[in-house]
Amino acid sequence: MTENSLTTKDVKVSYGQHESLHGVTLDFPKNQITALMGPSGCGKSTFLRCLNRSNDLLPDVTVSGEIEFEQQDIYGPKVNVVALRTQIGMVYQQPTPFPFSIYENVIFSQRMIGLHDRQKADEIVERSLRQAAIWDEVKDRLQRSAQSLSGGQQQRVCLASVLAGAPEVILLDEPTSALDPIASAKIEGTLLSLKDSYTIVIVTHNLQQASRISDQTAFLLNGDLVEADATKTIFMTPREQATSDYLNGKFG
Ligand SMILES: Nc1ncnc2c1ncn2[C@@H]1O[C@H](COP(=O)(O)OP(=O)(O)OP(=O)(O)O)[C@@H](O)[C@H]1O
Fold this sequence. Notes:
Elements: E1 4-15, E2 18-29, E3 33-37, H1 44-50, E4 61-69, E5 72-73, H2 81-87, E6 88-91, H3 102-112, H4 118-131, H5 135-138, H6 151-164, E7 169-173, H7 181-194, E8 199-203, H8 207-213, E9 216-221, E10 224-230, H9 231-236, H10 241-247
The site of adenosine-5'-triphosphate has 11 residues, from helix 1.
Protein name: Phosphate ABC transporter ATP-binding protein PstB
Pfam family, one: ABC_tran
Keywords: ATP-binding, Nucleotide-binding, Phosphate transport, Transport
């Protein structure tokens, strides 16, 4: 039986009085890539942000339903939210490195939790940059500003920063939409190489990308989950007409 890393049941999200997500139930199998797709405004990012409680950072948001990470309620009273966001890390659409060196960007979250050992920090930086497939490009200039890198390189440094926290799950919100096809392909290749060790959830507008890299695809529409299944099934034989219409470019 497939082991799930994250499970969700009847997740609803409202911004103020307006309900944007109407009760989504979806499981995220361990060591698989799940793609969330759907037209603009259907609730993909809203749902993704629930998975590591990033919505808590926004004003006037109400989340209900159940979200469990390794069988623990992530909205439970004893949860350490900072630790949770390290275990379930997030990479955003725009690469957003801090105005520090590449080295300090990667090790930033570890510094925040008290890492001062130079040798340990060196090891974590190298391992994370290697996993993010950017070590060879930056190893001779780790003290250069991360902001001096190209967009694609910055995105891989941001991924390395998440990996430095030794997460279990990596959430990515349209991580390649600001990148050219070559930089996007590098990120896709990196994600495929990471899935043996991590559970990955990616929001994407790029249908080819979803079909290339994901194991499971979920289609959302107007705040509802229309269907979720193995990616091949969704793309070849979707159950719902709305999914088929979306895949055929009839809306979105
Ligand atoms: N911070 C917010 N405050 C108020 N409403 C929001 C906020 N974030 C999202 N919404 C609303 O929630 C709905 C879902 O938005 P969301 O960004 O989750 O969709 P999406 O599918 O990720 O869209 P896109 O593909 O354009 O990024 C939209 O109606 C949006 O206006």
